[in-house]
Amino acid sequence: MENNVYKVYEDEIQLLEEEIKLLAGKYDDLKQESTFYSDEEILTSIKLFQKEFQGESKGECPSDLKAQLESLEREMSFLMKFTGIHFTSHSKKTLEKHENRTVQKHRLSGNCHSLPFQLEFQLLETQSKENVSAVITDFNVKMESEEYSDLSKFVSSTEKHGNLLLFFRSLSSYAEWYEHRRCTFLHFKVLFIEL
């Protein structure tokens, strides 16, 4: 009789351990998945946090935390001005996770000067004893190619090679000159209308 009672308890313990493993896996997946928000949403959240924090600390905000935040905002602003690239959203989802191999799907969208873009790619990370390597696969670029028809060869080449750095460098350069051409043609259009 006692053996049957112990068997029931052991079975229950085993079921609970399996459920804990399942929930721990789901928790890890949710923790790794992240979505980045637009600058406006970030600033709104920061302001709300500061108001709550100031209410709790009676109007005093730690100066070192505030200085770090201001420094990060300046750096982010500098990078956006320097490159012309402004990310509006990013999401990451873990597709596979093994002991030494992880596959994640990323989605990025934003603007480079006045050109909108969307990227989707998978990042395969493999870890060995010496180093970690990352390879981009299934690279897909979405741009309104009708308006920017001269970008279609560039987009095809970038998707084929899966080189993010090349994509952003080339897009930044193209978008900067595209903006100059647009302003120049606008200037001549205004002059032509006035004549």
UniProtKB/TrEMBL annotation:
Lineage top rank: taxon: Eukaryota
Keyword terms, alphabetized: Coiled coil
Cellular component per GO, a single term: nucleus
Signal peptide range in chain numbering: none
Any single biological process term in GO: CENP-A containing chromatin assembly
Coiled coil segments of this chain: 6-33
InterPro entries given in the database record: CENP-P
Protein name: CENPP protein
Naturally occurring in which organism (per UniProt): Asarcornis scutulata
Gene that encodes the chain: Cenpp
